[in-house]
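re: the backbone from monday

yeah here it is again, tokenized this time
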């Protein structure tokens, strides 16, 4: 298994009033109703200009000390009828929550508001949150943030900054409350945004930057690596990052050559690796000699990766390289059935992209920024992934699939085709193309099917559902 702990899952805390929702109008209506009952003319505009402090503190200047607790109870009782349906989500709030979800993060709402009323707000505006914690204020929010593992806390008030800093979290402030940029910066906030409209882009950039920094730090600490290099986007970024962190003399790239690696993938992969100045090794692997691989059960990838690592681990040792690193990313680690990952871990391989928390989208974005030619390269799983589970994998079958895919690309010359799989289903063959290209014009479809038949297949069809990565797993 990995010698590094899994990265902590993302958890982002949000304040509620004036951060996620515009509470001021509803809050003012409740103050007016309370004042009417108590015979007190509250300065509503002044009291709602800087919402955030606890209600008792807001009422304190206007009521006798012994009347504040009862007034607070009455305020909270009046609140549902005066301040729920009239209070909207602030601009960007839903998108901010969705941005956290997009990164598989947890959403926490940590607020000084009475919990029952806070829940009414969340339900009314339709916020999807994992945790609501009410009646916590200032540094008191830190206990919740630490308990829930929040690394970011978003608020609008200087006291929200205090809570974030006390928790050791990154403080992100928005200017939708009453505090100014200068006040928030003086309080120690790390980031100031005009509103939550800016939060998704900020979060994307923050996570990419911190995760790439974590990748670099990890690789530096490793000292030297042999990268199990397929030529795809993941392993290409890993190789480039290793060269940046360690220098080319402490990095090598190894691509296992076998029947399952398409010929068309080999030269571009080698050219890219050589352009980085690293040693490029192309040892032969013999996964076809492993009965479990040929049998092509759902665990076929275990035997393939086991063969690859059984070749690369001693090779790395001979070269004096400390580790074998694979291009497994953070999405792969949560993608469900991935027996190949288990085989690599059992043989001591490291997965720096995964350990840094880098997702496939982040791999592509970082590659684009670095000018790597692989940044938008379509996923290119091995040829054996085209053969239905339970159908024996043989060199003949793999060669036939490769010929068929080459023929289909030739038949679609001039068509912007990104993804293609010719699936050998045993008695028939299915062709998966980008869904945006479907349905094909009748002439094109016939040309595609003719190319497949010319490669040696019989009954063939174009899958109307289009390309689906891992579609063979749908039968599992």
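seq for it, each position gets an aa:
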């Amino acid at each position: 298994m990995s010698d590094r702990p899994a990265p902590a899952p993302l958890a982002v805390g949000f304040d509620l009033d004036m951060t996620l929702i515009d509470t001021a109008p509803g809050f003012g209506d409740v103050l007016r109703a309370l004042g009417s009952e108590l015979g007190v003319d509250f300065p509503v505009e002044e009291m709602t200009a800087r919402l955030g402090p606890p209600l008792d503190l807001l009422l304190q200047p206007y009521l006798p000390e012994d009347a504040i607790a009862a007034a607070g109870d009455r305020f909270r009782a009046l609140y549902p009828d005066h301040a729920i349906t009239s209070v909207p989500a602030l601009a960007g709030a839903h998108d901010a929550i969705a941005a956290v979800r997009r990164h598989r993060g947890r959403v926490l709402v940590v607020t000084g508001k009475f919990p029952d009323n806070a829940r009414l707000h969340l339900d009314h505006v339709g916020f999807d949150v994992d945790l609501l914690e009410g009646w916590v204020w200032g540094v008191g929010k830190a206990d919740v943030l630490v308990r829930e593992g929040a690394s970011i806390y978003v608020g609008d008030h200087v006291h929200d900054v205090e809570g974030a800093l006390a928790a050791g979290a990154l403080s992100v402030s928005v200017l939708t409350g009453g505090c100014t940029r200068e006040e928030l910066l003086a309080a120690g906030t790390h980031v100031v945004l005009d509103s939550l409209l800016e939060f998704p882009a900020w979060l994307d950039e923050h996570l990419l930057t911190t995760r790439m920094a974590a990748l670099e730090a990890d690789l530096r600490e490793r000292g030297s690596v042999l990268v199990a290099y397929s030529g795809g986007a993941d392993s290409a970024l890993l190789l480039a990052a290793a060269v940046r962190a360690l220098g080319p003399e402490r990095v090598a790239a190894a691509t296992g050559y076998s029947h399952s690696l398409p010929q068309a993938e080999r030269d571009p992969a080698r050219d890219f690796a050589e352009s980085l100045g690293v040693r490029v090794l192309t040892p032969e692997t013999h996964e076809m000699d492993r009965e479990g691989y040929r049998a092509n059960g759902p665990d076929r990838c275990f035997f393939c990766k086991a063969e690859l690592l059984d070749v690369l681990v001693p090779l790395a040792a001979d070269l004096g390289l400390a580790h074998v690193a694979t291009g497994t990313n953070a999405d792969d680690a949560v993608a469900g059935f991935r027996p190949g990952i288990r085989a690599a871990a059992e043989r001591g391989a490291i997965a720096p992209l995964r350990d840094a928390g880098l997702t496939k989208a982040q791999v592509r974005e970082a590659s684009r920024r670095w000018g790597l030619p692989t940044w938008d390269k379509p996923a290119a799983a091995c040829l054996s992934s085209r053969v239905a589970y339970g159908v024996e994998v043989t060199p003949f079958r793999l060669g036939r699939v490769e010929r068929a895919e080459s023929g289909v690309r030739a038949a679609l010359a001039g068509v912007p085709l990104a993804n293609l799989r010719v699936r050998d289903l045993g008695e028939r063959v299915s062709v998966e193309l980008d869904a945006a290209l479907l349905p094909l014009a009748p002439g094109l479809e016939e040309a595609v099917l003719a190319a497949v038949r010319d490669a040696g297949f019989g009954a063939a069809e174009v899958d109307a559902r289009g390309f689906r990565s891992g579609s063979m797993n749908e039968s599992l």
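The chain has a mean pLDDT of 92. The longest strand covers residues 106-110.
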